[in-house]
Amino acid sequence: MSAMERLVQEFSRLPGVGPKTAVRMVFHLLKRPPEEALRLARALEDLTRKIHPCRECGNFTEDELCSVCGDPSRDRGLLCVVEEAFDVGAIERAGRYRGVYHVLGGRLSPLDGIGPEQLGVERLLARVVGGGIREVILATNASVEGEATAVFLEGLLRPLGPRVTRLARGIPVGSDLEYVDGSTIAEALEGRREM
Asked: Region 150-171: what's the mean pLDDT?
């Protein structure tokens, strides 16, 4: 296999990158000065050598603790459980949450061989048992697997004492009801609140 074919194959492994996009990426790199491709290679090497999971929450960081866990102003009694590290960024961009996180590293998916052991659920339970957690927000995705994960975790967490909540779901801001699916409208009706 040629160097070009190997790189196309490696790019194709990335999420959202199909074979055609991978080929375009390789040709783009070939048309640029060689130092640009070398910069990319060094950045990838640095990524694999320097970035690792935060020892407390599982978010990715270069330090022992991620920027959230290392921030003394965060509310340590409020714990938001997310599926993946990139979910932390999505919640942080909203600018409203001031608690800490726990990154599962996936969601329950028995067909894919992903059970509680692969998600490190025992680490989550240890954090809650460790004390000080008033509320656990289950912020898993609204997929079948995400819902199953949330229900499973709720069953384990509730007996430990903290309030267990789920992110609200419903109609996105700026959308028209005629374009919203029935299950989203049902969730919005069920989660309605006083005005």
From this structure: 91
Question: In this predicted model, what pLDDT tens digit does every residue of 32-43 receive, in sequence order?
Answer: 999 999 999 999
Phi, psi of 174 (to 5 degrees): 90, 0
Domains detected in the chain? 74-166 (3.40.1360.10)
| Inter-CA distances, 66 with 75, 77, 102, 109, 186, Å | 15, 17, 11, 27, 37
Q: What is the pTM of this model?
A: 0.83
Q: What are the backbone angles phi and psi of residue 18, rounded to the nearest 5°?
A: -90, 180
Q: Are 154 and 162 in contact (CB under 8 A)?
A: no
* Strand runs labelled E in the chain: 52-53, 60-61, 75-82, 99-103, 135-138, 163-166
